[in-house]
């Protein structure tokens, strides 16, 4: 089962001819969660052959245009494609105030409903869950209310070992309990330990998206030990003062957060257009945190099902 | 001096991975007039290396998202680039009502002024002029108020023949009058005909943009004899009924307008994504009007200075 992030856009406010403004999709077993929706997101979804019908949840980090100006076009297109299923948009409290009137004007005849969910950007809380995944907000420190999002797979049930169940003649009605980790107790009181009957499921995977934000250790407890962290790196350390002033981060600061939070891998993005050579971002981060990678539009970062220690 | 149209986007409402929604720039001597501004226009401007600072006038045909959703991103980017010069936006009366609040929310700190100009979409009128060019609206027939735009170079002054002026000892103060076409009359009453002293200037060039619209012969008097006509062709004749119902045109209808208006060349665009082979549009149009061409993103159509009969 897939758990992967595709970068649709990774530039900062000024898009270039190669890099779009911020947008990503998280693929959880072929259901797609859109994270931010900069201008051009719908074209990027097409380029990356992501089926629009598989998107039902959009998470907006903050209301700067480079993170949300793709919403009206995407919502219109979903309407033209004949969508009828509800679409849920999570974002700071003004999200509906800003985009509601645009929808009312441009998308009058749409056959589907857009449900806005206001996210409190001041604390981490569960904003969405289904049977596979939970999504928590991550309070960020930016010039306007902003939050990241933590996607965490739910712990799956243990895998039964068919041969052991047959060997011990386990009744079928016991299987759901054994999957949950219970030992089997037969009618004569014999106990078969769960570890004989099941194998552990794959570890639950997790992804944290943190953009835009200045360096803030307050997020560390929320993103602790995630498999994959996207942390903005608008500047290099040569512009640390500017990063601070504009409430952005440097590559080194992103790496420090990754290291302190004990994450497995770090993706950098949201590069300022002032830098022509983005490899400098990777180098600067890798000095602090070895497992640092650069986001590029169209790139997919996979977290394999086998667990947290696998390569992607 | 350049007079050319670059296609930034030429698809209909649903953009594809190769074709962006509608936007074009008309280059009049390195001043750029933006016509429509679909999502992704700012990225297309960058790809086509068009300098943002050279754009001061934007003409919006109608308020369907695929013709204007690129405005917020472009306006934000102009602000981030430090623009201070006014930007003028021409469009149907609701344009300011729709985009004003978005600007107010997202572009609070911009150092330049956006001036909205309401265009009456029911009649053709002069909406803009400067020393080189006049822009007229073209009433179109669509589901909502819509107009095209006719760009017409002003007639340039006649070119003086330096040798003739020297030969006849024409005083310098007479030159402006001679450029305007007057004969020279010397103090002793001798008349030197203007045709001996000047050559005609290059013919004034013209471009008409007509999208979106159903077939309407009412536009013919407005676009009569233009050098270059862009006319939408959303469908082929196999879907003429659908074209009529949705207030769009077929390639054949676009060609009929071109023929009846006596234009020199026709560009087709705004193709429905249902057609995979756009060459069918050219073929269908060429049966009626030989000089029919297909718009593609990134293509530039030049009208040379030498006049209306030159190739591009």
TrEMBL record, chains A, B:
Q: Which SUPFAM superfamilies match?
A: Metallo-hydrolase/oxidoreductase
What enzyme category does the UniProt record give?
A: hydrolase
Reactions mediated catalytically: Endonucleolytic cleavage of RNA, removing extra 3' nucleotides from tRNA precursor, generating 3' termini of tRNAs. A 3'-hydroxy group is left at the tRNA terminus and a 5'-phosphoryl group is left at the trailer molecule
Q: Where is the active site?
A: 66 (proton acceptor)
- Residues given in the record as Zn(2+) 1 binding sites: 62, 64, 142, 212
Q: Is Protein transport a UniProt keyword of this protein?
A: no
| InterPro entries, per database record | Metallo-B-lactamas, RibonucZ/Hydroxyglut_hydro, RNase_Z/BN
Taxonomically, the superkingdom here is Bacteria
Checking Gene3D superfamilies in the record gives: Ribonuclease Z/Hydroxyacylglutathione hydrolase-like (3.60.15.10)
Q: Where is the Metallo-beta-lactamase domain?
A: 203-271
Question: Which co-factor is required?
Answer: Zn(2+)
> Which residues are involved in binding Zn(2+) 2?
66-67, 212, 270
The protein's GO terms of the molecular function aspect are:
3'-tRNA processing endoribonuclease activity; zinc ion binding
- Enzyme Commission number(s) from the entry: 3.1.26.11
| Keyword field contains Zinc | yes
Sorted keywords for this record are:
Endonuclease, Hydrolase, Metal-binding, Nuclease, tRNA processing, Zinc
Q: How is the cofactor bound?
A: Binds 2 Zn(2+) ions.
HAMAP family attached here?
RNase_Z_BN
**Entry function:** Zinc phosphodiesterase, which displays some tRNA 3'-processing endonuclease activity. Probably involved in tRNA maturation, by removing a 3'-trailer from precursor tRNA.
> Which family does this protein fall into?
Belongs to the RNase Z family.
Q: How does it assemble?
A: Homodimer.
What is the protein named?
Answer: Ribonuclease Z
Q: Which gene encodes it?
A: rnz
């Amino acid at each position: 089962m897939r758990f992967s992030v595709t970068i649709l856009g990774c530039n900062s406010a000024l898009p270039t001819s190669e890099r779009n403004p911020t947008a990503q999709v998280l693929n959880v077993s072929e259901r797609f969660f859109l994270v931010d929706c900069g201008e051009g997101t719908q074209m990027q979804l097409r380029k990356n052959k992501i089926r629009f019908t598989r998107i039902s949840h959009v998470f907006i980090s903050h209301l700067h245009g480079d993170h949300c100006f793709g919403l009206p076009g995407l919502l219109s297109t979903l309407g033209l494609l004949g969508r009828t299923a509800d679409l849920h948009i999570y974002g700071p409290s003004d999200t509906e105030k800003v985009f509601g009137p645009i929808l009312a004007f441009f998308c009058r005849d749409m056959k589907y409903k857009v449900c806005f969910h206001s996210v409190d950007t001041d604390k981490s809380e569960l904003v969405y869950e289904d049977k596979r995944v939970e999504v928590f907000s991550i309070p960020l420190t930016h010039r306007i209310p902003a939050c990241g999002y933590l996607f965490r797979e739910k712990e799956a049930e243990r895998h039964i070992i068919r041969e052991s169940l047959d060997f011990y003649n386990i009744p079928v009605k016991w299987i759901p309990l054994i999957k949950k980790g219970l030992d089997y107790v037969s009618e004569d009181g014999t106990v078969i330990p769960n570890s004989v009957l099941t194998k552990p499921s794959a570890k639950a995977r997790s992804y944290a998206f943190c953009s835009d934000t200045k360096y803030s250790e307050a997020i560390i407890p929320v993103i602790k030990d995630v498999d994959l962290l996207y942390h903005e790196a608008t500047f290099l350390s040569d512009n640390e003062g500017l990063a601070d002033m504009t409430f952005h981060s440097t590559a080194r600061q992103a790496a420090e957060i990754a290291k302190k939070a004990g994450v497995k891998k770090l993706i950098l993005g949201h590069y300022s257009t002032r830098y022509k050579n983005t490899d400098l971002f990777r180098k600067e981060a890798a000095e602090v945190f070895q497992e640092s990678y650069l986001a590029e539009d169209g790139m997919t970062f996979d977290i394999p099902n086998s667990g947290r220690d696998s390569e992607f």
